[in-house]
């Protein structure tokens, strides 16, 4: 038997989840009161899981490093959440959502997991409406939908440009109900620093109280990691600045395999980098691509004039604009998947057509949409459709209703009015498809240790379609984990409380203290940010939108050297027994410095292009990703000490319900 047992149920794809639910073990309500579950992370995945598990009767301990669960990074999601409701009557279905997701992931995701995700997607919307999430509605009262990249239907439910915030508030309200009942014990400003494994099973965590510095032991019958992704390894990203890989990486070092670390998503519509002073980047929702048209000037002379300020983009004639996505991908146009749109923007900018001072920006233009909506509104109201000023006013009103908060955010950051001049955008790190390897039950290779949401690898393959992150997080937390975890916990109803005074807890705590002491005692000369920025530049330049063998080998060497330098020359001010944000940051960067090397190693081993992993050696004549049959597997890495010593295990990806073919959006 393979060391990677995915536990995919037998039978037809459409029946697997129902069959599995009918056959797995359950825990009766009285026995659930005897079982403790730790959930690390309070975003959409962690928050929904904690609330649902507590509602079922389990005793839940919930941990987040923020001062409130509602500060989880899920709150930053803007554009929407996918579900196969087919309210538009445009041909959507469970199968089509499943197909779009597998194709969008460049045929590098597990069929059974993705079909289940599509199947439960409709339940999510009903759940959230019942919680009071204020989804946008059409005139007739039905929930409204819009399109996102990589699909030909409208299946994205949204609440203006604040969908993540509204969904998180729904999960947070559900959590608060259970906190009030005493079924969730909430630990804010706590960071998980290790997993405790007893007799081969995850039985608790070691956490640090970030306010007092106290190291704490917490036990449970199962541990759930819902701590998000690792995009901040690149330093500049659209992630919250506190987002990190520590919880997942500590789990990896305790035996949980780390899968597909090189699969990282670059989002095409971010506000461009403006200088070395920046500490993060800001996303402009993909929903803007419904109405915004992406272009660069056709002529280099116009590019130069824009850069030196002698020409405005609004002064460039329509025939002198290159709407390159519409030109290259006529079927999908501006709504191609994120990896395709990102590489296309990079190609234009690398060719010298970038429109800002750094040459790394393209335009996202709403002038055509404003005119179209304005004329439509004038017609509806019986007004003069040829009155330019009126049409502009009415059109801007429609755009404001749809995207107003996003436009306001852009203007505050860039100090340009996007109603009057095109937005400038450029790709940036946004999401990680890789993560802890999990089976069909969402359990890692460590029994009793689960990973959900962005912390696992299971649903998106090599590229995530827009509006699918929120879908996966809530599907895992509300509708999958609460079923599957019972199959494992059914064997623990007579175990009793897990003691924390055992040698396993003592050893794990001692290791955490030792690691912290080393960082505090190290009297180096350089700040934590110095090393994080250097790592970020290596990652972006050599492991970013395009990769090649030479650069990846160089990155592996440079990251290992930087890690050695970090431990020799980092300076962490203050003490461990106090609020010390630099100490917390140092621990996170130390983990990034290990993950970064494994990331590059994984990218080097995968000699193909797929989704967000683009090897320059493997591309078609037209510059598209070139998959190779022999790499149709999940790479799951086993920790063996240093990242260079990690051992790769492979889970074959077999497609019985989808034909694997060249991925085309033309």
TrEMBL record:
It catalyses: a quinone + succinate = fumarate + a quinol. PANTHER family: SUCCINATE DEHYDROGENASE 2 FLAVOPROTEIN SUBUNIT (PTHR11632), SUCCINATE DEHYDROGENASE FLAVOPROTEIN SUBUNIT (PTHR11632:SF53). It comes from the Bacteria. GO terms for molecular function: electron transfer activity; flavin adenine dinucleotide binding; succinate dehydrogenase (quinone) activity. This is succinate dehydrogenase. It is found in: Cell membrane. Belongs to the FAD-dependent oxidoreductase 2 family. FRD/SDH subfamily. It is a peripheral membrane protein. Its EC number is 1.3.5.1. NCBIfam families: PRK07573.1, sdhA_Bsu. Pfam families: FAD_binding_2, Succ_DH_flav_C. It is an enzyme of class 1 (oxidoreductase). It comes from Winogradskyella aurantia. The lineage of its organism: Bacteria, Pseudomonadati, Bacteroidota, Flavobacteriia, Flavobacteriales. GO terms for biological process: anaerobic respiration. GO terms for cellular component: plasma membrane. The active site is at 338 (proton acceptor). Residues 36-470 form the FAD-dependent oxidoreductase 2 FAD-binding domain. SUPFAM superfamilies: FAD/NAD(P)-binding domain, Succinate dehydrogenase/fumarate reductase flavoprotein C-terminal domain, Succinate dehydrogenase/fumarate reductase flavoprotein, catalytic domain. Keywords: Cell membrane, Electron transport, FAD, Flavoprotein, Membrane, Oxidoreductase, Transport. Residues 532-665 form the Fumarate reductase/succinate dehydrogenase flavoprotein-like C-terminal domain. Its main location: membrane. InterPro entries: FAD-dep_OxRdtase_2_FAD-bd, FAD/NAD-bd_sf, Fum_R/Succ_DH_flav-like_C_sf, Fum_Rdtase/Succ_DH_flav-like_C, SdhA/FrdA/AprA, Succ_DH/Fum_Rdt_flav_su, Succ_DH/fumarate_Rdtase_cat_sf. Its cofactor is FAD.
